[in-house]
Amino acid sequence: MNRFMIGATLTLMVASSAHAGKATAGMRVGAPSFRSMGSLTFGPEGVLFIADTKAASIIAVSTDDTKPGKAATALKIAGLEKKIAGLLGAEPAQILVEDMAVNPVSGNVYLSVSRGRGPEATPALVRVKGESEVELVALEKVHFSELALPAAPAESTAGRSNPRLESITDLAYQDGRLLVAGLSNEEFAATLRSIPFPFKDGVNPTSVEIYHGAHGRFETRAPIRTFVPFMIGKEAHVLAAYTCTPLVQFPLSAIKPGAKIQGKTIAELGNRNRPLDIISYQKDGHVNLLMANSARGVMKIVTESIEKAESITAPVPDKKGVGYETLADWTGIDQLDKLNNKTAVVLRRDEGGALTLETRPLP
Predict the structure, then answer these.
(1) Shortest CA distance to 109 belongs to which of 140, 83, 141, 145?
(2) What does residue 163 show for φ and ψ, rounded to 5 degrees?
(3) What's the DSSP call for residue 332?
(4) What is the pLDDT of residues 243-280, one digit of tens each?
(5) Residue 14: band (very low, low, confident or very high) from pLDDT cuts 50, 70, 90
(6) Residue 318 in contact with residue 42, Cβ under 8 Å?
């Protein structure tokens, strides 16, 4: 998910770059090793950050995809899993698209993919060029760097879930730093990290606590599901959404290694729901948020009221705080990203479960 902070009152070989830029300085050339591929986000100079949750690490890869391209505003690829399955020599049912990110320079769409399910699944990176070309990115000789996350949760096969798989739940790049949400092995397990790039050393997590109005309690172990950097007044923040949909703000200045911070809950957007993706964009002089959800459709969130929003500190029955509208014609959206301030790229699932990758005008 490629994200930009907006001011408001509130089989293809990726070639080794001949001339490494500032972002690729210090990277080595070779074939990075992945146990998994999850969240994606772009940084400067075509650098793609890829979360490997099984390894609790982040790999920065220079895609060499740095030439401005014509925005593919008429993109529509139906049966996307069939096309990817053909590239990987698999059945469509074996393909799971984990995340999507649009390169803000070229407009090309990148997809992290799993071939197969469970422990035996293998990762792959796919690129969509223009309006129809789907390619496998062979990461065999690229500039890359890797960062292992300190205090990551240990792998576990006991119980219903493996906490290691939530070591990284979302990524965003902002002003020379990679922001990482996920879980740690500490008592306050929910975390944010602000990691300088180029990578130097691992960064210990910031433990985050929120008040969840729908649950009527403080929570320290629920991970952020999706977030976006955002200006509130003159201060940079993270706006983060959690399962059962509290929307919480954290000042970026407070995200420091080893710190424990409490967010400000500014909305409860409906329980029995899991946020999937969020973007910010500017249109007609207004800054908007668009958030896809598992059970409550795509929400267009009003931002003018965020700066003056009151903190939710007591139980609420379902919804309260910052307002939104549900986009009735945006159904089945699993992933979304911004192509530009007029157009979004979405990954949409139809009633039969098949995937379509397409562009849509931003509302």
Answers:
(1) 83
(2) -60, -25
(3) S
(4) 999 999 999 999 999 999 999 999 999 999 999 999 99
(5) very low
(6) no
Query: In Å, how far are 209, 257, 270, 298, 361 from 274, measured between CA atoms?
Result: 18, 28, 10, 12, 24
The answer to whether 208 and 190 have CB atoms below 8 angstroms apart is yes
Residue whose C-alpha is closest to residue 242's, from 173, 190, 318, 184: 190
* CA angle 14–19–25, rounded 5-degree value: 90
The string of pLDDT tens digits covering residues 34-51 is 999 999 999 999 999 999
In this prediction, residue 3 has a pLDDT band, given cuts at 50, 70 and 90, of low
Nearest Cα neighbor of 348 from 65, 75, 33, 163 is 75
Q: Please name the amino acid found at residue 122.
A: T
**Are the beta carbons of 155 and 144 closer than 8 angstroms?**
no
Residue owning tokens 């397409």: 358
The set of residues, in sequence order, having a beta carbon less than 8 Å from that of 344 and lying 6+ positions away, is: 279, 281, 290, 336, 337, 338, 359, 360, 361, 362
Find the angle CA(190)-CA(194)-CA(198) to the nearest 5 degrees.
140
The Cα–Cα gap between 67 and 84 comes to 25
Query: Which pair of tokens denotes residue 53?
Result: 């949750």
Amino acid at 26: G
Tokens found for residue 328: 């009735």
8 Å CB contact between 183 and 223: yes
Parallel/antiparallel/unpaired status of strands 12-13 and 133-138: parallel
Task: Answer yes or no: is pLDDT of 333 > 70.
Answer: yes
CB-side exposure of 201: number of CA atoms within 13 Å? 4
Q: pLDDT at position 2, please? A: 63
- What is the enclosing helix (H) or strand (E) of 84? helix 80-88
- Residue 34, both tokens: 């992945």
What is the DSSP secondary-structure string of 168-217? --EEEEETTEEEEEEE-SSSS-EEEEEEESS--S--PPEEEEEEETTTTE
Determine if the pTM surpasses 0.90: yes
CB 73 within 8 A of CB 91: no
